[in-house]
Amino acid sequence: MKAVTWAGPNRVTCEETPDPAIVNPRDAILKVTATTICGSDLHLYDGYVPAMQRGDILGHEFMGEVVEVGTGAASALAIGDRVVVSPMISCGNCYFCRRELYSMCDNGNPDAALPEAVWGHSPCGIFGYSHLTGGYAGSHAEYVRVPYADTGAVKVPEGIADTQALFCSDALATGYFGAELCDLRGGEVVAVWGAGAVGLSAISSCALRGARVVAIDRIPERLALAVERAGASDALDFTKVDVVEALKELTGGRGPDACIDAVGMEAHAPGLQGAYDRVKQAVRMESERPYVMREVIQACRKGGTIAMLGVYGGFLDKFPIGALMNKGLQLRTGQVHAQRYIGRLLEHIERGELDPSYYATHAMDLGDAQEAYQTFKQKRDDCVRVVFRPAAAAA
Amino acid sequence: MAPRTPGITGWLSRLQKIPRPIGSRLHGALDYLTGTTLVGVSRLPGVRGRFAGQALLTAGAAHLAYSLVTDYELGALRKLPYRVHLVLDAAGAGALALAGAVRSDPIDRFLPVGVGLYELGAVLLSDPHGTPHAVERRSVTVERGEEEVRAFLQDPANIRSFSPEGTWSGEFELRAAPGDRGVEIHAPASPADLRRAKQLLEAGELATAEGGAAGRRGVLSAILPSLDTGADGAS
């Protein structure tokens, strides 16, 4: 089959690889009908995740058609089912899965010793997301093996388009998770850093819960989407305003009740601070560019909540722990427990309350993967998300 | 009456009582550090081209070579038993020290003798059983009932599945986890055995990335398997 593989920093290739096979009873094999490049794939693409190997198949946000089912998943899935799949590979039975904390699954990561050495404990496995999370083959391929498919694959109801269902896998689920972390009751002000697909999803989800949302980015087209499509009431271009001061101005000096970091480890930042982080990250003296996290802590109101959705992998430099403590902030974070949300999100879509289909700005072939990654990375041509449709291309 | 001096048996007994805090993982790290340092020092001006340089170069290169094939955590090919590795260390160190001791030039004499004594010290302080952590008591919590867990851990077929290397001692203790959170297994076992047992008990199968194309393993593969205490490939 054709698959997009990592070929070193800033290089991917489309190559022929062996077809996947059922290994365990709870596996299923999917023909991938749609898969998208996630912002967190860029951390792998850019070479900032050390446990990547040349030849690893990328991709974790996807949907497809079931073409083979193991005996242990047959009660939940059948051949021909159209499903959207959680990026998180979780057993469904451990302490964490039983409490719907799927991304913390004890059993999904076969390379658990590696993250245990780095982070103390291992998260779940993740498709196409380095050997820190299991070395599983990803979804940028014609076919993919889905472990624990009875837990991770959710059937898509009739009437929901691929471009709506696809993003329930990760982007929409992550944004929705962020809104839940903020514990909104209606009437709060939430500031969201980053207006990519996850940020737009967070904005929609917070607005759905009755919050007034301020979007922060530097790309005018994305800020326009945040206001016109996602439901933000205000938009701030961080290259043109002092974000902390602007947020104080918008909130009567108090600051936002909750702040969401939908950017993560490769934040763009203006001025000296941005250059400082970029140099330190380039020479591997720090693993992250934590500009957004610093600003979030500075901006959030006293006693407020921070939801960290953007991916971080290692160690922060100049982390304002003093502000965090003295302002009594609550920092909540984690990889999304997508299995918890996918069903709920499909219902929101059916009711017309959420519609992420506009994220799919570009459709490209697996064979154009390098161009696709560059288009997404450089945000060329107003790109929000590139979607591959391997099954359609193969037909 | 003068105190008795210990005989050979007494000295051996005393040697056996020496604390050996260096596990196989730390020993491996020292091997690579020592090997590269010896090669580096052998190329320094004043050392290069003389007996000491040749001796350190040979010792360093040999050290690196048999470390790479040693059956310990940091080995790449893992063919050479760790105990044999320690014997080679001791023999090499002794030979180096003796070869230096008969030289008259100070550099040719003291460099090999110093390195030889350092290596002998490292061997004496190394635990020949490997990393002490490998047999430390460990625990894992499983979301299952005590009787089910007990029966599972005593079933030979299950033991072959979760301990394919045969490292499971069979000794374990079960305790109810606080807050009705299942059962804690406490055992002198490797992390890999406990993790696999937990996977089989809770998920019903061993997690593996097989069945999908993986990366073409490069330099990282020399490190990853040594850290991998999970179940990949064991199903």
Structure description:
The complex is a heterodimer of chains A (395) and B (235). Chain A has 395 residues and is an alpha/beta fold. Chain A has two domains: 2-170 and 336-394, Medium-chain alcohol dehydrogenases, catalytic domain (Quinone Oxidoreductase, Chain A, domain 1, Alpha-Beta Complex), CATH 3.90.180.10; 174-333, Rossmann fold (3-Layer(aba) Sandwich). Chain A contains 15 helices and 17 strands. Chain A has helices spanning 41-45, 95-98, 113-119, 149-152, 162-165, 171-181, 197-208, 220-230, 243-250, 271-282, 291-299, 321-326, 338-350, 369-378, 390-394, and strands spanning 2-6, 12-16, 28-36, 61-69, 82-85, 88-89, 125-126, 143-146, 153-155, 189-193, 212-217, 234-237, 258-261, 305-308, 330-333, 360-364, 385-388. In chain A, strands 3, 4, 5, 8, 9, 16 and 17 form a seven-stranded mixed beta sheet that branches. A six-stranded parallel beta sheet of chain A has the order 12-11-10-13-14-15, sandwiched between helices. A two-stranded antiparallel ribbon of chain A has the order 1-2. In chain A, α7 (197-208) links the parallel β10 (189-193) and β11 (212-217). In chain A, α6 (171-181) packs across α7. The mean pLDDT of chain A is 95. With 235 residues, chain B is mainly alpha-helical. Chain B folds into two domains: 21-124; 136-206, Ribosomal Protein S8, Chain: A, domain 1 (2-Layer Sandwich), CATH 3.30.1370. In chain B, 50% of the residues lie in helices and 7% in strands. Chain B has helices spanning 8-16, 24-42, 51-68, 82-101, 106-124, 146-154, 156-162, 191-202, 224-227; strands at residues 137-142, 173-176, 183-188. A three-stranded antiparallel beta sheet of chain B has the order 1-3-2, with helices on one face. In chain B, β2 and β3 (183-188) form a beta hairpin. The longest helix of chain B has 20 residues, at 82-101. Chain B starts with 7 loop residues before the first helix and ends in an 8-residue tail after the last helix. Chain A binds chain B through residues 3, 5-6, 17-18, 20-27, 51-57, 72, 89, 91-95, 98, 106-114, 116-117, 125, 131, 134-137, 141, 144-145, 147-148, and chain B through 141, 143, 181-182, 191-192, 195, 198-199, 202-218, 220-221, 224, 227-232, 235.
